[in-house]
Design a protein that fits this description.
ATP-binding, five-stranded parallel β-sheet, zinc ion binding, two-stranded antiparallel sheet, zinc, EC 6.3.4.20, Rossmann fold, alpha/beta, queuosine biosynthesis, about 240 residues
């Protein structure tokens, strides 16, 4: 199966900047696009509240995309949070763990996300799974690597006897490039929509709107988003990881 043969896609849509950009990317390419979100007990679960408003804004601002936007699915993955002692699921300070990875890493998260996405896509007749995994500014998360996604595609296709295509349009982009992709897809309207309607802050702070969006401004996610936005405005690149 090729991109041109595939007609429907399922986007892993958290409500954050990366997945929102991926949603626009998919809507620009496929005839029908559904979305999938996960509640795994994340501290920044305010992002889940952004999903509905962003979907509504997409349909309102880009009617052609709105016609392609299909059902939304929300899965309770609280079991993942219950077995994860990380700064993403616990009220603990964000720091580098003994493993060398930041303690925001939730082991198995993306692997589980993609497996569930594949099961839903199988039932819905969708052949493309789209995720915002990125190896350019990924903090070293092993489940964001291109090799991991390629291996997972093979495993899913073998295990389900089908031909899924795992798309990761941000894999080799830094945050400045991600802003640029949004502009390329939907102009200033989409950039502003991503800036205002999405959420990235790890601690879930959404009280103050900065030039780059809502957030605490101090966590790794906010710092990276801010640097990326400033570099995007300046026509530069950002390759530094959050931690």
């Amino acid at each position: 199966m090729t991109r041109t043969e595939a007609k429907g896609a399922l986007v892993l849509f958290s409500g954050g900047q990366d997945s929102a950009t991926c949603l626009a990317w998919a809507l620009d390419r496929y005839e029908s696009v559904e979305t999938l979100g996960f509640d795994y007990g994340q501290r920044h679960r305010v992002e889940l509240e952004c999903r509905e408003s962003f979907r509504a804004a997409i349909a309102r601002t880009f009617p052609a995309w709105g016609e392609r936007l299909g059902d939304d699915h929300m899965i309770d993955l609280s079991v993942l949070g219950s077995i994860s002692d990380t700064a993403m699921t616990r009220e603990i300070e964000i720091e580098t763990a003994a493993s060398g990875l930041p303690n925001t890493f939730v082991p198995g998260r993306n692997l589980m996300f993609m497996q569930i996405a594949a099961a839903i896509a199988y039932r819905r007749g969708l052949k493309v799974l789209v995720g915002g995994m990125c190896e350019t500014d990924f903090s070293g998360y092993p489940d964001c690597r291109d090799d991991t996604m390629k291996a997972l595609q093979v495993a899913l296709n073998l295990g389900m006897d089908t031909r899924f295509l795992l798309e990761t349009p941000l894999m080799w982009l830094d945050k400045a490039d991600t802003w640029r992709l949004a502009e390329k897809l939907g102009g200033e309207a989409l950039v502003d929509m991503v800036r205002v309607e999405t959420h990235t802050c790890y601690v879930g702070e959404r009280a103050e709107l900065h030039a780059w969006g809502f957030g605490c401004g101090g966590c790794p996610a906010c710092k990276l988003r801010k640097r990326g936005y400033e570099a995007y405005l300046a026509g530069e690149n950002v390759t530094e990881a959050p931690l």
